[in-house]
Amino acid sequence: MAGKVVATLVLLCGCYASRTDMRAAAGKVKNTDEVKQAAADFQSDIEGMKKVLADFQDLRLTHTLADADDWIFSVAWAPDGRLAAGSRDKNVRVYDEDLRLTQTLGDADDPIESVAWAPDGRLAAGSRDKKVRVYDEDLRLTHTLDDADAWIFSVAWAPDGRLAAGGNDKKVRVYDKDLRLTHTLGDADRLVSSVAWTPDGRLAAGSYDKKVRVYDKDLRLIYTLGDADAWIFSVAWAPDGRLAAGSDDKKVRVYHK
């Protein structure tokens, strides 16, 4: 939806510019070809705007899933179209492709802060009970990762099957594809609120210490981005390598090499 909103604004601006240009050129046109071209450009802008607005209007609410008893903190789509929702009621609810509730995973002792699906269909759920629980493709609990002595705020899978978990003990823990703890990244000075992987295996971690840290594929710290004077709540990578960070100063900062 956000992308379409941006596109709509761009097209609206384009149409305004076309009208302005046509007015400015009114006294300078020397032949009918210039008039025809200006009119064609304007009509093209109008048609493009209509198409984007039509696409935007087609994005309509189809489902409201009201099965939880408390706030929903995290939602995530699986590669096969399933949807997971983690709640403050300590449960993870999983819906099938048709958004029918199929399972309620009630293994946690405290609220679920983050859910994430792996490329192979595994599901991770991070909780305030200081544990990350991992379920297989059939949603059977296979691992309970209890290395942290702190709430787990964010979990994220890398394309190669590694799992990162950030918590309020200021650390990011990274597990290999067999869920063995391989790295504990302790560079942050306050809780780690969000972790995210790039397709090529780099890791970003946002913290309440107002910084975003970026690690290379071998989990060596390569960047510390301290442009925000605010807590970092969320980080996300674009497919083209851009990094976005949202913070409590009402801003989103975007980085690109």
TrEMBL record:
Keywords: Repeat, Signal, WD repeat. It comes from the Eukaryota. SUPFAM superfamilies: WD40 repeat-like. Residues 1-17 form the signal peptide. Pfam families: WD40 (PF00400). CDD domains: WD40. This is WD40 repeat domain-containing protein. It comes from Effrenium voratum.
